[in-house]
Design a protein that fits this description.
Blueprint: E1 5-6, E2 8-10, E3 13-15, E4 22-27, E5 32-38, H1 42-59, H2 64-80, H3 82-93, H4 97-119, E6 126-129, E7 132-140, E8 143-147, H5 153-166, E9 170-174, H6 181-193, E10 200-202, H7 207-215, E11 219-225, H8 228-239, E12 244-248, E13 254-257, H9 263-275, E14 287-291, H10 295-309, H11 328-343, E15 347-350, E16 354-355, E17 365-366, E18 369-372, H12 379-382, E19 389-395, H13 398-405, E20 413-417, H14 421-430, E21 435-438, E22 457-458, H15 463-468, E23 471-478
Parallel strand pairs: 1-5, 8-9, 8-11, 9-10, 11-12, 13-14, 13-20, 14-19, 18-19, 20-21
Antiparallel strand pairs: 2-3, 4-5, 6-7, 7-23, 12-22, 15-18, 16-17
The chain binds NADPH dihydro-nicotinamide-adenine-dinucleotide phosphate (NDP).
Domain Aldehyde dehydrogenase: 16-476
Catalytic activity: betaine aldehyde + NADP(+) + H2O = glycine betaine + NADPH + 2 H(+); betaine aldehyde + NAD(+) + H2O = glycine betaine + NADH + 2 H(+)
Family: Belongs to the aldehyde dehydrogenase family.
Length: 487
């Protein structure tokens, strides 16, 4: 077992499991085991539920302004420890340092600050009905469960915890087995900031551990970020006790470049939408539709910039802008998709291979890959790859591209590049996607609700909508006159 051992974080402290079951975590850029993690068994899972129930009793009665003050302190600590946390994210995920140091911790802290600020402005309604009246209270749900994916481990933990805790809930969070460390540090930071014990617990393990809690009758809500297949399993398991669910799932999003687009900006958008975080972003615009009149210019500039500006290498090197994929098995999956693209007749215009950067020869790197001559039926067009693989197609008319963009089971995101304002809004209104960008791609400020249409998800995270999803409405009718009845 590696010398460093991460334990489950329950009721304000790291807790040993009794059987010492553990799993290893691998640095994707080296293929080396970097630490081990204790798996939560049934005893710890029950302990975490009891702890979260106790935490909820205290936290839900803590005045919102006090909760806000405590959460603001946690956000400040996150910002102070930005570089330390960013490094953990780089080592666990393989993403470039230059991204983690600017984005991952800061967007997590943004979420905590935003929801902390919102928590004091929750107001009910009051309405007269004759001489009687009613009012409403927005109350927390209870113990919520957050289950995270591995691509933005800290950000996902912060987004879920921030909304849940600001609304007065407690949360048990299960990070992905591949990236378990930052959520545990977040739990320590919450305690340091003054969040009561049990309000944010982190349990470790795989889908079996997640499933145990999803089915647990004491859990009021499950918020999952993961694949569509996992979403279906979790939703089915949650149905047994009729829990509320929020599902942030996968996608195969279209990015449409019209003939009047600023082509340099469209190329920037397409590269961001496919190569950022080495393509491991749920909202990626992997189906790039380019109008036939600007296709030649778009491709020429895209290929030059991919060749000259994408730097695959050691993720800790600040000049690297494309890091390692999360695991060997995921790299093999991405390489198989690339093979299937070639087999199905697409033209490999760039890349398509595993890369072994100096010093990281055993890491899981795939270089930026661009396919052209794709058609709508190929697997690389229909299935989520979650790697740096861009597929470019041409189109002729607005009507045609809208129909093709919507021809998918997914509906997470969509982007368009064009100068014609009316066209931009007309087209966006017809795209079946929950998160859309016009002349931009990928930005997701916490103020903006995010979530998917169709099989890409249920419910919304972030924004006021995300906050409300962690509350339930109680209506209270008040009789002001003598009550009379037929009995
Ligand atoms: P997975 O669906 O494999 O896993 C997500 C989480 O669910 C992990 O913590 C996993 O545990 C857990 N899990 C797996 N099975 C179960 C189960 N039966 N019950 C409860 N929990 C379970 O996703 P990945 O981690 O591979 O992440 C990539 C996926 O996430 C992509 O599809 C991507 O599009 C999507 N995603 C969506 C986002 C969005 O906001 N819409 C954002 C980011 C990613 P473990 O892995 O430890 O076994």
């Amino acid at each position: 077992m590696p010398s460093t051992l991460l334990k489950n974080f329950i009721h304000g402290r790291h807790v040993d499991n009794s059987d010492n079951a553990f799993f290893d975590v691998i640095n994707p850029s080296t293929g080396q085991v970097i630490y081990a993690v204790q798996t939560a068994g049934e005893t710890l899972l029950e302990q975490t539920v009891t702890s979260a129930q106790e935490g909820f009793k205290i936290w839900s009665k803590t005045p919102a302004i006090e909760r806000a003050r405590i959460l603001q302190r946690a956000a400040a600590i996150l910002r102070e420890r930005n570089d330390e946390l960013a490094k953990i994210e780089v080592l666990d995920t393989g993403k470039p340092w230059q991204e983690a140091v600017e984005v991952d911790v800061q967007t997590g802290a943004d979420a905590i600050e935003y929801f902390a600020n919102l928590s004091t402005s929750v107001m009910g309604e009051q309405q007269s009905v004759g001489n009687d009246f009613f009012y409403t209270r927005h109350e927390p749900l209870g113990v919520c469960l957050g289950i995270g994916a591995w691509n933005y481990p800290l950000q996902i933990a912060c987004w879920k915890a921030a909304a849940a805790l600001a609304a007065g809930n407690s949360m048990i969070f299960k990070p992905s087995e591949e990236t378990p460390r930052s959520a545990s540090l977040l739990a320590e930071i919450f305690i340091q900031a003054g969040v009561p014990e049990g309000v944010f617990n982190v349990i470790q393990g795989d889908g079996v551990v997640g499933n145990y809690l999803v089915q647990h009758p004491a859990i009021a809500k499950v918020s999952l970020t993961g694949e569509v297949g996992t979403g279906k399993k979790v939703m089915a398991a949650a149905a047994g006790t009729l829990k509320t669910v929020t599902m942030e799932l996968g996608g195969k999003s279209p990015l449409i470049v019209f003939e009047d687009a600023d082509i340099d900006e469209a190329v920037t958008g397409a590269m961001l939408a496919n190569f950022y975080t080495q393509g491991e972003v749920c909202t990626n615009g992997t189906r790039v539709f380019v109008h036939k009149d600007c296709y030649a210019t778009f491709m020429e500039r895209l290929l030059v910039r991919t060749r000259d500006n994408v730097r695959v290498g050691d993720p800790l090197d600040p000049t690297t802008n494309l890091g390692a994929l999360i695991s060997n098995s995921h790299m093999q999956k991405v390489l198989e998709y690339i093979e299937s693209g070639k087999d199905e007749g697409a033209t490999l215009a760039f890349g398509g291979e595993r890369i072994k950067p100096p010093g990281c020869e055993n890491g899981y790197f795939v270089g930026p890959t661009i396919f052209t001559d794709c058609n709508d039926d190929m697997r690389i067009i229909r299935e989520e790859i979650f790697g740096p693989v861009m597929s470019v197609m041409t189109f002729d008319t607005e009507e045609e591209v809208i129909q093709r963009a919507n021809d998918t089971i997914y509906g997470l995101a969509a982007g368009i590049f064009c100068q014609d304002l009316r066209r931009a809004h007309r087209v966006i209104a017809q795209l079946e996607a929950g998160i859309c960008w016009i002349n931009a791609y990928g930005n997701s400020p916490v103020e903006m609700p995010v979530g998917g249409y169709k099989q890409s998800g249920i419910g919304r995270e972030n924004g006021i909508e995300g906050f409300k999803s962690y509350t339930q409405t109680k209506s209270i009718y008040v009789g002001m006159e003598k009550l009379e009845g037929p009995f």
